[in-house]
Give the backbone structure.
Amino acid sequence: MAAVTEPVPQSPDQINEDILRVLEPPTPLYVLMVLLLATTVGVALVAFLYQTYWGLGVTGLMHPVMWGVYITTFVFWVGIAHAGTLISAILFLFRAKWRNAVNRGAEAMTVFAVLIAAMFPLIHIGRVYKFYFMVPYPNQRGVWPNFKSPLVWDLFAINTYMITSIMFFYVGLIPDLAAARDRVRDWRRYLYRALSLGWRGSGEQWRHWARAVLHLSGLSTPLVLSVHSVVSWDFATSMVPGWHTTIFAPYFVAGAIFSGIAMVITVLVPVRKAFHLEAYLRKEHFDNMGKLILLTSSVVGYSYGMEYLMAWYSANPYEQMSFWYRGFGYHWTSTWIMISCNVLSPLPLWIKWCRQNVLWMWITSIFINIGMWFERYVIIMTGLSHEYDPAAWGYYVPSVTELTILVGSFALFLTMFTVFLRLAPVVAIQEIKELWYEDHSSARAHGGHH
Amino acid sequence: MAQVLGLLSNPDDTVTAIHELKSAGFKELEVYSPVPSHAIEHALDRGPSPLRLWTLIGCLTGVSFAYFMQIWVAYDWPLVIAGKPFASIVPYTIIGFELNILLGGLATVAGLIFFGMFLTRKGHDAYQPGFSGDVFGCIVNCHGDQVNRAQEVLRRAGSTEVRVVEG
């Protein structure tokens, strides 16, 4: 079979043209897809209104399992939101230049995922209009939130992450919005003019912009590690068997990066194909993301093993019972789906051919998404349904309302991403051009073409 | 005061133009670039951005406010639990850290908008859409009798086009 070579951008102007072509008026297929996704979101909205009217009785939540699909999905989307910051901030500080091709899509995904994640605690409390009880505001009773509670830490962590991610995403987007402003001729020109804040690419502007990106990367790096640590402490500071371990913070952070990278692949592979971006989202990018998946999958697999080891070695009967139940009790299918998808399905990625095979990577990424949702489901469900007292053991089956809202969250995520594709460049133009100039500068220095 | 604009095709030529203009005694230079370039930033030699101070002040404000808020609230509505102190510094560090990041980030973006957008909002008569594509621009502010000299330096540095923007 003859080797298929990927196209290479010939000039910076071609980079502009190729990437901004995605912003051209949508095709009927695109419109149909957005309508289908929006309809699914609409159905989920009806389910949410139904729940708000009738109360949490329409869910499967019942003592002792008072956290169900909603908190599972909340943790899942927070995890998904980690990839953008990892790729944009941490890999930026490490000067990993391959990130330039995928960082914009990952950042957009982060913003949408964290917005959706932030909705789930509100959905979960049932009386959504009471959410402000968590916010420290002066009231006539003088009662304040308990700042020693992990739930309040979570409120601050998630909101800080959401605002910081939006700022990071927007600051990186400004030069590309100016490029779009200079080329688009329809109504969006006014939108880009307003959003690009008068960007001209002057030396003075780049000086402050580069410093801002560096600072936001520096701030986001510990933030991204802290956010899922704080989410993990929602569990780890409790006394529930299976939750009360110190391994939870690194275990959750690794899992978050694992699932986030998988979602980047899930989303970008169809975009690459649909908009002919093979010259920008190249096989080596998928190769590198495959290596990150292998690393984080190994950490996650190690953590699964360590949980069982600690349960056995602790000689704590409650802990041992909880983990026995996890693997062989009512929820055994969920546990084995989790292990199969998160530990076994990435194993072929040790082979370079698999990492560079875009279709293989895409299928693997979908397995990982499924597996990581089940990981959170397993932790929550098995922990809560079998605590200390056998008389208080219970069972949980998600209701149709909960599952509809779960599906709606995926549809909302995809709707936002699909609309974003038409509004802003999905690949960071100026960063790709920066690499192009670097390559051609070194080629000139060596006296030939690159 | 006149503005002489030289159009260049890559960052290397732009850096050369900046160095040659500086050697020729021109002080008021500005560059338009489609990409960030450390080489251009070093050639312009404007020193570190004042954003550093904004970020630091934002971070310190955030962490101070967070500790103040939590300690004040603990004493505003004291809850006696097992004889422990009302305010617990260790758990308060988590929200202290989060607000440190949040206000640091907000101050950084505010500084970017102030220095990078507000203070530089004027004087872009020479701007052209190619500067967000593949064209670099080097602008020299000079007196009328220096225009020819500036044009000559820009041409020598590799400008594909040189013109006087404002006479």
Observations:
- Residues 51-118 of chain B form one domain.
- The longest helix of chain B spans residues 89-118.
